[in-house]
Specification:
Elements: E1 2-9, H1 13-28, E2 32-39, E3 48-50, H2 54-67, H3 75-88, E4 92-95, H4 105-115, E5 118-123, H5 166-178, E6 183-187, H6 190-196, E7 207-210, H7 226-231, E8 238-246, H8 253-260, E9 267-274, E10 285-288, H9 294-303, E11 306-309, H10 318-325, E12 330-333, E13 347-350, H11 355-368, H12 370-384, H13 387-403
Parallel strand pairs: 1-2, 1-4, 2-3, 4-5, 5-6, 6-7, 8-9, 8-11, 9-10, 11-12, 12-13
Length: 404
């Protein structure tokens, strides 16, 4: 098979790693796979195609904010991508994150429909089936199930300075995706998949199924934590870890800070990721800046006694899967996709915002000891987030679409 993946990033951040890992797997299995992307390391590989330029992306971002429409610019860059696609002649096109100021969505989707190319939409967030929102549960807005408009998140995600074009963009998505003859949709969690099934955008999809994201379970595996604990002066501490690329209240920063205020003397909170300016961290919070170094991440996961996943809106929650793969239990709030990533005896799920219950569950994990959870967490990760197993699901889906 010949597969083209299109994603905003390649090899970096969560979706970029997922994209490059799928490409490597497919090529090792004897298939041809090209990644088309906007941002990522440039290696002049025949298997990679960079879309547009920084200047084009900046102009797209400006026009998007002024017009209120996201994904309606970068015509030149998209035309060149389609010319490249003609030459590559893929059997399958995999669409990942397209909302990053680099693609003209109508041109791309019309091309896929006209060429009758089997298309798989992978939902890493909710943008494909809403007017513009990547998430909507905090805002409590479910108008996308019928028609958008009067958007409560106009200044979030793909910001609009002046105009609300969400109703128009949702109608365009219904029409454009509805015209693709062979369309399948993959949600990366049960929660997200069930939400997508409610969307009129995917009414004509041949299949909508869940395939979990994976983690590299060889890379993300338990390590000996003694050296890192000594380096960070945490030898005699119980450690709660929280990880995000960038911290906001939607990602749970306020909950992390509230938890820090509840920890006891011999307990420490390790916070990894960028924090906004002006945020004062308590003395018992150790902050590590954002890192894309996988070995560093594995060391932090392995060293921690428990991961606290405080995010209020997760369509999967890769940090939870990575922590489990390193043998570390997870505590999270009971909403969106968070609970389904915490298997039996792999941590705890608590009511949203219930800090007393959260503290109680973390204390219980500390007292029980990490050794009780380690093998159980690792087993759950291998059973659910293994690359080989989940890629085989994709291959079966690709084959079914091609044969239609």
């Amino acid at each position: 098979m010949k597969i083209l993946q299109i994603n905003a990033v390649n090899k970096i951040a969560s979706t970029g790693r997922t994209t490059s890992e799928m490409a490597a797997f497919l090529r090792n299995a004897g298939h041809s796979c090209v990644v088309a992307y906007s941002v990522g390391p440039q290696e002049n590989s025949a298997w990679e195609y960079q879309i547009g330029s920084k200047t084009d992306a900046k102009m797209h971002g400006l026009l998007s904010r002024v017009s209120g429409k996201q994904g309606y610019f970068s015509k030149g860059a998209t035309r060149k991508l389609l010319d490249f696609t003609d030459r590559f002649a893929p059997d399958i096109v995999v669409l990942r994150n397209l909302h990053a100021n680099y693609i003209h969505l109508p041109m791309l989707l019309q091309y896929l429909a006209q060429k009758d190319i089997a298309t798989v939409v992978v939902l890493h967030d909710c943008w494909f089936y809403t007017g513009k929102c990547c998430h909507y549960t905090v805002a409590g807005c479910y108008k996308w199930q019928e028609s958008c408009g009067n958007c409560p998140a106009l200044k979030k995600y793909n910001k609009s300075w002046f105009f609300d074009k969400t109703a128009e963009m949702l109608e365009d998505k219904k029409r454009l995706f509805g015209a693709i003859p062979r369309l399948a949709v993959v949600g990366v969690s049960d929660w997200l998949t069930n939400e997508a099934k409610k969307s009129p955008v995917f009414r004509s999809a041949e299949e909508i199924e869940r395939i979990y994201n994976w983690v590299n379970t060889e890379t993300f595996s338990p390590r000996e934590p003694a050296a890192l604990r000594q380096q960070l002066d945490l030898q005699d501490k119980k450690v709660v870890l929280s990880v995000a690329s960038g911290w906001t209240n939607e990602k749970g920063l306020d909950s992390v800070l509230q938890l820090a205020g509840r920890l006891q003397e011999k307990q420490k909170l390790l916070l990894v990721g960028h924090i906004p300016e002006g945020v004062d961290l308590p003395d018992n919070v150790l902050h590590i800046p954002q890192t894309n170094n996988l070995e560093e991440l594995v060391s932090y996961y392995s060293m921690a006694d428990v991961l606290f996943q405080p995010s209020l809106e997760e369509t999967f929650g890769k940090v939870s899967a990575e922590a489990l793969s390193c043998g570390t239990p997870v505590v999270c709030f009971r909403l969106t996709a968070n609970p389904e990533l915490v298997g039996e005896n792999c941590g705890a799920v608590v009511p949203v915002g219930d800090m007393a219950c959260l503290t109680e569950q973390i204390t219980r994990i500390f007292e029980t000891g990490k050794n009780f959870y380690k093998d159980r967490c690792r087993k759950f990760a291998l059973e659910n987030f293994d690359l080989q197993q989940n890629m085989e699901q994709y291959l079966r889906l690709f084959e079914r679409l091609i044969q239609k």
